[in-house]
Every structure is written in C-alpha cells, then in structure tokens.
Amino acid sequence: MSKVIVLTGAGGVLCSSLAKALAKQGHKIAVLDLKLEAAEKVAHDINIAGGTAIGVVANVLEKASLETAKKEVNSKLGSCDILINGAGGNHPLGTTSNPHLLEEDLQNTTEGFKTFFDLDSEGIQFVFNLNFIGTLLPTQVFAKDMVGKKGCSILNISSMNAFTPLTKIPAYSGAKAAVSNFTQWLAVHFSKVGIRVNALAPGFFLTDQNRALLTTENGDLTPRGNTIIGQTPMGRFGEPEDLISTTLYLCDDASSFVTGVVIPIDGGFSAFSGV
Ligand code: NAD
To answer: Ligand 1, atom 3: nearest CA belongs to which residue?
Structure first.
C-alpha cells in the first residue's frame, strides 16, 4: 500500500538514497531539508524516475518551520504515515584534536588545537540539538497525523557511537545515545496508538561530513580511517545502499510487531571486541 513518507535531512547522502528506494516501492515522498535546493534536486530525481516526491524546506530545530512544511506535505501528498528522522551530524566545535589527553597538550599553542578543556559549550549544544532536538521536534509535528491510524511508524537514525562513544566527538556520541534512548522511550509511549518507533545505527559510511576525518586528499585512509577499517570485520566502509533493506523492512507492515529496536548496520563493528 502506498504511504506518505516524510524524510528529514533527505537532501543529504544517506537519506536521499533511502528516499529514492522508498519511492521505487510506490510511496509518496516528502524530501525535507534545510537546503531547499538539495531537497528539490532529490525530489526531481525521484519524479523523473517515475515516482512521486516533493522537495520542502524545513529546519528540524524550528517547530514553526516544521509546521509550515507539514501543511505543504498534507496539501500536496496527504497525511503522514511514516517519518524518517535523518537530519543530524557532528560539528568541529564539538570535537577534540586528539583521541587522548596528554600532559603536553596543555602547552600546545597551535592555531585550532583543541583539548577537552577548550571545547565550546555552544558547539556542544549545536550538535546535541541537531541530533536530539532535531529528532524530537519533527516527531511532535508529524506523528500527530499517525495517531490512531494503521501502518504508521517512525525511524530514527542513531549511530555506532551510541553504543560505545567514539574518541574525539563527545557531543555527537552523547546526542546519538540520546536518540537511541528516545527511540525506546517513544516506542513505549506510542505503543497504544499504533505508531511503531525504531532506529538504524549505521556504522561508518564515507560522506561529506566525515570524508576529511577518514581519508586524505589523495583518497588514502587517515590513521582514524585505518583504525575503523581494522575494527570492522567486513573490512570496508558502508555504502548508502546497505541501509535500504532494513529501512524497507522497518517501514513495512512486515515488521508490525517490531518496535523500540536499534539495528546496527555496521559490517560487524559493534560485535568486534578488537581481539
Ligand atoms: P549529510 O550531511 O549528507 O546529510 C544531512 C542532511 O541534513 C544535509 O542535507 C543537511 O542539509 C541536513 N540538515 C542539517 N541541518 C539541518 C536542519 N537543522 N534541518 C533540516 N535539515 C538539516 O549526512 P549523512 O551522512 O547522510 O547523515 C544522515 C544521518 O545519518 C545523520 O543523522 C547522521 O548523523 C547519521 N549517520 C551517518 C553516518 C555516516 O557514516 N555518514 C553514520 C552514522 C549515522
């Protein structure tokens, strides 16, 4: 059955791929993004491939912007059945320069060098808000359409660092842990009104956000990139397509008794102790 599916951050790498895959199943797709041009490009690609999609500007940190987007979605596509909370990411202001603090770091005066003690609370807040509040607000706005309707669900995007924090990115790790926790909380809260809530926890996918952290300009792996591949039993980064089948399953009635789960899609990263 064709559903109306709203994806936030769907102008980006991972969720644009999910939007296109869901459109191929015959669903009507609302591509939401802070960048209207990126959202419209994805919607255009879907429409010329024979699907149905609209590109809509929306800021997941502003409820009024989401309410305006919802009006457009409702009038052009209908009431929302499925919400995928894809907008998220890290920011350099919430990132330390080194994985571990060394005594000599406190004397390091190199421009841009940051220890834990230099982290900017506004940077931490930005990352926390983008990932956690940016999941909560779209849910408040779009899940109202789902209450009491059959076949509705929400899919959040968590991360590996929600299970065990990654070095250097305390804000992003904490925020994604909050997204996983919220997924379980919401699954219980919505369990009587017919809305299932689940999450994907992608492993490491090369995207614009992390390319500079994981690869050098000539495409070789950085030390961090090498560590990740060394810790990933399948020995590769994920491709956006690796997320599709689990997304289709969690958005489909085939998973009608599945709620509150966070599924790692990580080539075995979270199962590997490193030994
Ligand atoms: P991306 O940067 O390609 O896409 C993110 C999109 O979100 C961008 O199009 C951006 O414009 C949009 N966005 C940013 N702020 C927004 C806001 N305030 N309101 C609306 N849209 C906003 O990133 P991606 O790699 O496709 O990541 C998608 C999701 O997957 C994120 O939640 C990310 O944290 C998560 N994730 C990514 C990886 C990875 O390896 N790439 C791993 C685990 C989890």
So the answer is: 12
Nearest to 186 by CA among 158, 208, 166: 158
CA of 88 to the centre of ligand 1 (A): 4
Tokens of 247: 């997304």
- Ligand 1 atom 12: the closest Cα is on which residue? 9
Distance CA 106, CA 147 (A): 53
Q: Tens digit of pLDDT for each residue in 230-247? A: 999 999 999 999 999 999
Question: Is 172 labeled as catalytic in the residue annotation?
Answer: yes
Which residue segment(s) compose the domain that 87 sits in? 4-92+125-271
Residue 109 maps to a domain: no
Beta carbons within 10 angstroms of residue 139's beta carbon: 23
Both tokens assigned to 80: 């929302």
Q: What is the CATH number of the domain that holds 179?
A: 3.40.50.720
The answer for 194, left when phi > 0, alpha when psi is -120 to 50, beta otherwise, is: left
- Quick check: pTM over 0.90? yes
The percent of residues in the chain predicted with pLDDT above 70, rounded, is: 100
